[in-house]
UniProtKB/TrEMBL annotation:
<protein>
    <recommendedName>
        <fullName>MftR C-terminal domain-containing protein</fullName>
    </recommendedName>
</protein>
<dbReference type="InterPro" id="IPR041347">
    <property type="entry name" value="MftR_C"/>
</dbReference>
<dbReference type="Pfam" id="PF17754">
    <property type="entry name" value="TetR_C_14"/>
</dbReference>
<feature type="domain" description="MftR C-terminal">
    <location>
        <begin position="35"/>
        <end position="141"/>
    </location>
</feature>
Length: 143
């Protein structure tokens, strides 16, 4: 067995996580009549509660590595776009309709808020709770 059988590049070790599918499943589980931002915010909160309860240090170390390493930070853009697309699909599935521009924008904005909160978390050396930073970021979107 070789390293590259599991990961196509060294960077993929840091880029890959199982959190996006978890978040998408949590979005799909939200009530279909709930506003998309509300559904995303609630799903992200539940997911963060779950992940941070068991993996807080690993999540922080990974976020710090990505944010402080120029190559990884540049690749974060693609990953953020992929996450937004996954969340838009989850919102559409929840509502039983195709993905449209509105859902893509909502998911992209929510993903940007999450990434910005993660960046602040790292810049503040993890002193504040990431959930609090996410809770602070969402209203900045006008939600």
């Amino acid at each position: 067995m070789t390293f590259f059988r599991y990961f196509p590049t060294k960077e993929a070790v840091v880029e890959h996580d199982d959190y996006d599918p978890l978040m998408a499943d949590l979005v799909r589980a939200r009530p279909p009549d709930e506003a998309p931002f509300t559904a995303l915010r609630a799903a992200l909160r539940t997911g963060l509660d779950t992940v941070l309860a068991t993996d807080r240090d690993a999540v922080f170390a990974r976020a710090r590595l990505v944010i402080t390493h120029p190559t990884l930070r540049a690749r974060q853009w693609r990953n953020t776009t992929d996450t937004g697309s996954l969340l838009a699909r989850a919102l559409a599935d929840r509502e039983g309709r195709p993905v449209d521009l509105r859902l893509r924008v909502v998911a992209a904005a929510a993903t940007a808020a999450l990434v910005t909160a993660l960046t602040a978390w790292v810049e503040e050396d993890g002193v504040r709770d990431l959930r609090d930073l996410v809770d602070e970021a969402f209203p900045a979107l006008g939600t």
